[in-house]
Amino acid sequence: MRKSLLVALASIITVTTFGCADVNDGTGLSSRRARRSSPPAVGTADDHDESDTEGANDVDVGNPNADTKPNEPTTPGTSAPQFALTLAQTTPTVDLGESVDLDVSVQPSNGFSGMVDLSVTGLPDGVTASTVQAAIPPSSSTPATVKIKLTAAVDAIATAPNTSSALVITGRSGSVSATANANFKVAPKLKLTIPVNVDALRAAAVNYRDEWGTAFGANQKALRTQQGNGIVVTVFNADSKQHIIHGASGFAHGSTTAGAEIKPNSFEMTNGQVRTRTLNVGANANGYPHDGAQGVGASFRIKVEAAP
Predict the structure, then answer these.
(1) Could you give the CA distance from residue 215 to residue 127 in angstroms, rounded to a whole number?
(2) Same domain, residue pair 182 and 200
(3) What CATH number is attached to the domain comprising 242?
(4) What percent of the chain has a predicted confidence (pLDDT) above 70?
(5) Stretch 107-120: mean pLDDT, rounded?
(6) How far is CA 307 from CA 95, 129, 176, 179, 282, in A?
(7) Which pLDDT does position 170 carry in this prediction?
């Protein structure tokens, strides 16, 4: 009997501790009354957390930073040393046989320093430009200003009305360069200058003296312009004595009344204004001082041809 009691007691302990008993509720069905005290093995049917809803009715709210601009860097990047060119005048004009200065400022930035070579391209026929350098000292932020001299020969082609030549001024220092632009014109204007001590030329047996300008002397060079764009000539007296100019093809002198002569270091005047003479394409003028002892040894000549 003792053995029977021990077996029965062992059965009760086994059911209570490690298993669960199916209790009949009177309907013929059994319900679970107890659960194992230890967790189920991974991968078994009971390995399920009913509170885990991941994947159910998912809504992707997206990355809130996807459309947000990045913050500015706390340390900005640096630019390479460089410079810029600025022109004081972007529409320079020069008369025939004259020069004009083109003021160019070289503005350094980002620590640029060194020598900048300046040059000009786009010049019309008969015009030259000087080559200059601008010096930028170390640690300087002050622009350096230099002058490029544009010189038109007497026989340079006059610029046609309502046109201009597009100039490009280039500054270069090693691999660094910059440019500036200008619209340039050669005006159809000529200043004819009476030579100094012209009286000494009168007795010479040589016609057409180079002292008036090589283009108007022994080896004449024709002025060049377009039809309808005549060259306007003024006469300046560089001599220490007053004179009257006389000649053919537009150079007939004005009044010979005392006081009407061209005064020393002055332009020829008429009615209180500088006198002008316009020579058109085809003109072949000449002249000489028409006062005192006259003589062709002090003469000049001017020819005008159509520009190509």
Answers:
(1) 15
(2) no
(3) 2.60.40
(4) 70
(5) 96
(6) 16, 21, 39, 30, 11
(7) 97
Cα–Cα distance between 233 and 237 in angstroms, integer?
A: 13
Same domain, 204 and 178: no
Q: Provide the domain limits for residue 242.
A: 195-306
Q: Of all helices (H) and strands (E), which one includes residue 13?
A: helix 2-18
DSSP string, 237-275: E-SSS-B-EEEESS------STT-SB-TTEE-EETTEE-
Q: Find how far residue 275's CA is from the centre of its chain.
A: 40
Q: Tokens for 233, please give them.
A: 């000539």
pLDDT at 297 over 80: no
CA distance 278 to 283: 9
Q: Looking at residues 303-307, what average pLDDT do you find? A: 96
Candidate from 66-80, 100-114, 123-137 with smallest mean pLDDT: 66-80
Nearest to 149 by CA among 91, 187, 94: 94
Quick check: 276 and 269 in contact, CB under 8 A? Answer: no
Q: Beta partners for 269?
A: 274
Structure token pair of residue 13: 């302990």
CB 293 within 8 A of CB 201: no
Confidence check: pLDDT of 185 > 60 = yes
Of 154-163, 204-213, 238-247, the poorest mean pLDDT is in 204-213
